[in-house]
Each structure stands twice: as C-alpha cells, then as structure tokens.
C-alpha cells in the first residue's frame, strides 16, 4: 500500500512538470495535480480522499500563510525593481558595466549586471526583464548564439545572488531566518565559497559552450525582437552613481538594521503577537531597507518616472504573479506533505545520513524540486522537518548559521527543473524553447549549485561553520 501511495506522489509530480513544460499556468494546475496524489493515496489506503477538505483546508491554508509571511518582501522587491527599470537606472548600470569590460567579456557583463540588480533587492523576475534587452543587444553585436542568453541570465539571477552571497535580500535567503533565528548575513564564509564555485563553474561552462558553437559558425540567429531604449527619452538615463545609490542604500541599511539596531531592541512585547524578535527582525530589516531604497529612487528620478502612481501600480501588479505562483507551489507541497506517503518519504530523508547538514540539504533540494520553487520547497521542508533537524543540529554542535546557509544554497539546486516558474518566465521573455536553452540552464542552476552545496557541507562538517 505504501508503494502505491508513493507512486501517486511521483505521478502527481510528473504531471506538474509535464503540464508546466507545456505552458499550463501553475496557479491553476498545482491544486489539480496535488489532488491526483490525494486520490491515489486514498485508494492505496482504502480511505475516502476528502478532496474539498484537502483543497480548502490544506492547499489554500498553506498558500495563504505563504502570502501572509512573504508578500511584503515580494511587493517591495517588485516596486524597487520597477523604479530602477522605469527610471532607466537598470539600463544605466548595465551600460556602464558593459562599457568598462568591453565586448570580449559580453557574458561576464550580463552576469555582473544581473548580479548587482538581484543582490540589491530586485526580484529575479524583474531582473530578467531589465537585463534581457541589454544582454540580447550585446550578444547580437558580438555574435554569441542567443540560445545561451537564458542560461547566462539564470546564472546571474537564479544562483549565487539568490541563495549564497551573504546579505542578499532575495526571499530564498530570508525564509531560513524565521526557523533558525538568523539573519540574511548568516555563515558569510560558507556563502562566499558557494558563490565563487557557482560563478566560476557556471561561467567556464557557458563560455566554453559558446566558443565551441561560434567556432562551428553558429551566430546569434534570426530572432524578431523589439527593445525599449530609455537613453533616448526626454530626460535621458541617470548617471551610474545615481543609479547604483538605491541598491547601496538597501544593502547597507539592511546590514545596519539586522546587525546593529534590532538585535539591541527590546522585543518583549512580541510575546503578545506569538513571535519573537529573532523570528522577525530579519524580515523587518529587509522591509525597511527596501522602503528606503524605493523612496530614494522616487525622489531622485521624479521627472524620469513621469509620476509615482504608474510605477507603483506596475510594481504591485508585477508582484502578484510571482507570489501567487510560488504560493500555489507551496500549497501543492503542503498537500503532498499532508499525505501518509510523505511521512515515509520525509522519514527516509531525515535518516538519509547521520550528518544533519546532508539531511537538511536533501530535504530542501528535493522538496524544491517537487514544488518547482526554491522558496516554496524550503518553506515546506523547514515547516515539516525543521524542529527535528534543529534538534539534531543542536545535539551535533552544528550552528544555526551553517544550517541557514546550507538550506538556502541547497534550495537553489533542484528548484529549477523544467517546471520551475522562473525558468518558464525566462524562456518566455527571451523567446527561446526548453529544448534550445534548458540544457545550459539546468547545468548552471541545478548541477553546479548542487556541487556548491556539497562543498560547503564538507567545509561545515570539518569545522568551518561561518
């Protein structure tokens, strides 16, 4: 009976991946394929499946809780990104980096541009929109096949700046704070090691692949595209210094608040809200830092923005699809985790190794793959297994700092399987197909991050936990 129930979970996941690959909206199909696993599980154990109860009380409750906890970060991140985009700041940053590095380093220019934007708090979805026109024009000028552009953008936005570099305000680095009582700068050395591995291996893979293709005579290719060049607008692009300032504000203020201000604040009153200061101060610091960056961008770019209402409206609208996609995937994962088959799977994961760091990495990466979401998979893994993992870590003398960083980096491994929402969005924006670009995306966002995860697990195991 157990094997049938587990097969039901596998069938459900296969359907989710296949339908997402075919372009079906995750928001619509996630609850349907989750209920497939519920039905098969009910048949396996000869129990009524209670489909409506699973949908309204499990799926929707989990999706709603995810929105409650993380919507402010999604919304403010999208607002911040929209301010940079519509003011021309994103294009100014990209142009400056490209001019400084030159055409020879076209791929590296795109990687650095995306990295600066996402590390500054710009949503990875927004970063894709902002970086793509610059990257496409540069690739076309140099003659690099366009099929490599999605992977280059993915490397810049979906890997080291999403989970590894200390202080990144991306949601994947914020989620572990609530469980481990840490902040976004947790285990900085481990994070930097993972980031270096991901950048170097990713760049070497892509540059080698592109050189081989170009040596065979392959060029950019024939693609119908239109680019919005803001440099020709009435007020032109802001200077690089003015463009980068909001990003610096977000990074510095987030660091000051999370390290120097909130840790020394009396949070006793939070008992009335059933939480603790350590559980919320990381989120609060990030919220305030993003608000400050948005206000600065508005004040210094009023004429370029042409008013505040339109950018705010577009930013808020842009955050909806991102968070509802992720929340729906989180609801899918929660539904799967409510089944008896999941208890068998999670038990196997918890005891897959005597090393709690390996168990943590496997749990977050596997569930990120199941849900097609790094943040959704990590939330489910830490919600359902977190207490056990923390208890084992405390017994083993493993710091919560190391647990935070390894969970974050591991979540950025199997999350970007073909059904991942960010991958589908990236391919849609760039106008490429899975068969053309996914092999390189998968190498840079699945295989190499898993290698980086293994490396920092080894370092943390031998005593380096910072």
How would you portray this structure in words?
With 466 residues, the protein is mostly helical. It has helices at residues 2-21, 26-45, 51-87, 89-101, 106-119, 124-142, 149-157, 160-164, 171-180, 188-215, 240-261, 277-300, 302-305, 309-337, 340-350, 356-371, 374-396, 400-411, 421-430, 434-461. The model has no long low-confidence stretch (mean pLDDT 86).
What distinguishing features does this structure have?
466 residues; 0% strand; mainly alpha; 76% helix; single chain
Briefly say what this structure is:
The chain is built from 20 helices and no strands.
- Overall mean pLDDT: 86
Which band does the percent of strand residues land in?
Answer: under 5%
* Helix content estimate: over 70%
Low-confidence stretches: none
Radius of gyration from CA coordinates: 22 Å
């Amino acid at each position: 009976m157990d094997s049938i129930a587990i097969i039901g979970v596998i069938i459900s996941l296969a359907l989710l991946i296949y339908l997402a690959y075919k372009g079906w909206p995750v928001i619509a199909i996630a609850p349907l394929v989750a209920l497939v696993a519920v039905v098969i599980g009910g048949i396996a154990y000869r129990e009524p499946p209670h489909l409506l109860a699973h949908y309204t009380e499990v799926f929707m409750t989990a999706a709603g809780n995810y929105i409650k906890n993380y919507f402010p970060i999604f919304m403010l991140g999208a607002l911040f990104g929209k301010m940079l985009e519509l003011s021309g700041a994103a294009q100014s940053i990209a142009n400056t980096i490209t001019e400084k590095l030159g055409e020879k380093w076209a791929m590296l220019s795109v990687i650095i541009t995306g990295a600066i934007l996402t590390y500054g708090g710009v949503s990875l979805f927004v970063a894709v929109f902002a970086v793509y026109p610059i990257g496409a024009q540069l690739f076309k000028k140099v003659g690099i096949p366009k099929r490599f552009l999605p992977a280059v953008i993915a490397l810049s936005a979906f890997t080291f700046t999403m989970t590894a570099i200390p202080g990144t305000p991306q949601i994947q680095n914020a989620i572990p704070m609530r469980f481990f009582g840490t902040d976004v700068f947790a285990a900085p050395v481990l994070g930097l090691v993972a980031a270096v591995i991901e950048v170097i291996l990713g760049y070497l893979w892509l540059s080698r692949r592109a050189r081989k293709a170009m040596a065979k005579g392959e060029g950019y290719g024939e693609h119908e595209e239109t680019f919005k060049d803001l440099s020709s607008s009435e007020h032109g692009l802001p200077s690089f210094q003015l463009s980068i300032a909001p990003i610096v504000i977000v990074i510095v203020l987030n660091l000051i608040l999370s390290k120097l201000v909130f840790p020394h604040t009396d949070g006793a009153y939070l008992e009335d809200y059933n939480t603790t200061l350590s559980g919320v101060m990381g989120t609060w610091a990030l919220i305030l830092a993003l608000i400050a960056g948005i206000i600065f961008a508005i004040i210094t770019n009023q004429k370029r923005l042409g008013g505040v209402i339109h950018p705010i409206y577009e930013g808020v609208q842009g955050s909806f699809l991102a968070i509802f996609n992720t929340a729906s995937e989180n609801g899918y994962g929660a539904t799967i985790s409510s089944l008896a088959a999941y208890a068998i799977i999670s038990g196997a994961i918890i005891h897959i190794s005597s090393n709690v760091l390996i168990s943590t990495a496997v749990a977050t990466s596997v569930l990120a793959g199941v849900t097609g979401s790094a943040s959704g998979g990590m939330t489910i893994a830490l919600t359902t297994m977190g207490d056990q993992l923390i208890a084992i870590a405390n017994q083993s003398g493993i710091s919560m700092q190391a647990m935070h960083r390894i969970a974050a980096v591991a979540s950025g491994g199997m999350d970007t399987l073909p059904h991942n929402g960010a991958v589908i969005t990236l391919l849609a924006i760039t106008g490429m197909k899975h068969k053309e670009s996914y092999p390189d995306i998968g190498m840079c966002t699945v295989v190499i991050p898993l290698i980086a995860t293994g490396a920092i697990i080894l370092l943390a195991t031998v005593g380096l936990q910072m």
